[in-house]
Design goal:
31% of the residues lie in helices and 21% in strands. By secondary structure, the protein is α/β, with parallel strands linked by helices. The chain has a single domain, classed as Rossmann fold (3-Layer(aba) Sandwich), CATH 3.40.50. The strands form 2 sheets. Strands 1, 2, 3, 4, 5, 8 and 9 form a 7-stranded mixed sheet that branches. The chain has a two-stranded antiparallel sheet with strand order 6-7. The longest helix is centred in the N-terminal third of the chain and has 11 residues. The termini are far apart.
Length: 201
């Protein structure tokens, strides 16, 4: 092993294929928790931190599509199992973002996972959650519209869960009666973890 593989276990080095060096992979902070927020149960693969933020920014805003497989590569087989008989309902991007980037970042990110993607939402305004104050984040409910309904059972998917409002807004448009909705995310923001902890008190 060399310096690029520092921090990698022998098992990972010998048996687990990856597309980035071990040093970079170990900067991803794994997350094994499931969070309950309202009628959502959120499964997240990683914790959101400065490293992941910079990587996502380079991918999404820098249009660096070479990074598309990096995020979910280690979970691609697990994603196949999770979505074996379900569709992966992705959260929407604004029309302006889709035009400026030339791609939907979640579709690109999921390409390595071989899951059936369902793109059934649109944003009616160029509304970016991360730029909103906490008290304004609930306004996302008035921005998301459903254009179709998934053809079969589904789970929701997003890249970063910060307040949970985007997932809640999407879930409300698809929810039947009082069911608990399952969502998967690349990462979960510490703010969301704190909100869920407070909800349990």
């Amino acid at each position: 092993m060399n310096a690029l593989d520092e921090g990698v276990t022998l098992k990972e080095y010998l048996f687990e294929e990856d597309i980035i060096c071990g040093n970079c992979r170990h900067r991803f902070i794994k997350n094994d928790c499931i969070y309950t927020y309202g009628y959502l149960r959120v499964h997240a693969f990683y914790r959101y931190d400065d490293f992941l933020e910079s990587l996502l920014y380079q991918f999404k805003e820098g249009c660096d599509v070479a990074l598309e497989n990096v995020f979910l590569w280690k979970y691609r087989k697990k994603m196949v199992d999770i979505f074996r008989h379900r569709q992966c309902v992705i959260m929407p991007s604004s029309e302006d973002k889709l035009k400026s980037r030339g791609f939907h970042h979640l579709k690109k990110m999921l390409a390595c996972c071989e899951v059936e993607v369902c793109d059934c939402f649109i944003k009616t305004k160029n509304y970016k959650q991360s730029l909103q104050r906490a008290q304004n984040r609930e306004k996302i409910h008035s921005v998301i519209q459903r254009t179709s309904f998934p053809a079969k059972d589904f789970y929701l998917f997003d890249d970063v869960v910060t307040s949970g409002h985007t997932l809640l807004a999407a879930a409300a448009l698809l929810r039947k009666k009082d069911e608990i909705m399952e969502a998967y995310a690349l990462s979960v923001h510490p703010r969301f973890v704190e909100m869920c902890d407070k909800q349990q008190l």
